[in-house]
Amino acid sequence: MAYEERNVWASLVVSVITLTTYIVLVFQQAGDGPLTDVDWFPLMLWTIGSGIVAVIVISILWGIIAGARDRDGIGTADIRDRDISRMGSRVEQAFVVIAGLGVIVLCAVNAHVFWIANTMFLGFAVAALVGGIARVIAYRRGLV
C-alpha cells in the first residue's frame, strides 16, 4: 500500500470516529432539552483537535510499521498519487461549497448559531469522508 493511500485510510477511519463521537456527545449533552442549549463550541474544538492529532499519530505509526517491512517504498509519491490527491480535493471542494451555501441560507433566515456552526462542521466532515472514499476508489480501481 502506498504512503499516500495509508494516510487516506487513516483520515477516513478517524473522520468517521470523530463525526460519530461529536454527534453522540452533542446528543448526550442535550439530554431531553433543545439542541441549541448545548455548549457545542468546546466539544467541536476538542473533537476536531483530537481528530487531527489522531490522524497524525496513526499515519506516523503506520508509516513506521510499513517502513520496517519495506524500506524502499516508504514515503515516496509519484504522479499517480498527485493526480489522485487533486481529484479527491476537487470532490471535497464541491461538498465544502454546498455546506457554505447551506450556511449562507441559514444566516439569511437568522438561524441559531448552533445550526450554522454545525452545518459547516457537518459539511467539512462529509467533504472529508466523500473525498477520502473517492481517493480510495481511485487507488483501488484507478483514475478514469
Can you describe this structure?
- There is one protein chain.
- The protein has 144 residues and is mostly helical.
- It has helices at residues 3-30, 40-69, 79-108, 113-141.
- Helix 1 packs antiparallel against helix 2.
- The chain is flat.
Short overview:
By secondary structure, the chain is mostly helical.
Termini Cα gap: 20 Å
**Tally of separate helices:** 4
The main β sheet shows up as:
none
Total number of β-strand segments? 0
Radius of gyration: 18 Å
User: SS-based structural class?
Assistant: mainly alpha
Mean of the pLDDT scores? 91
Strand/helix succession? HHHH
Oligomer: single chain
Judging from the principal axes of the Cα atoms, what is the shape?
flat
Outline the low-pLDDT stretches.
none
Proportion of residues in β-strands: under 5%
Helix content percent band = over 70%
Task: Annotate the secondary structure layout.
Blueprint lengths: L2 H28 L9 H30 L9 H30 L4 H29 L3
Helix pairs in contact: 1-2, 1-4, 3-4
Notable traits:
144 residues; mainly alpha
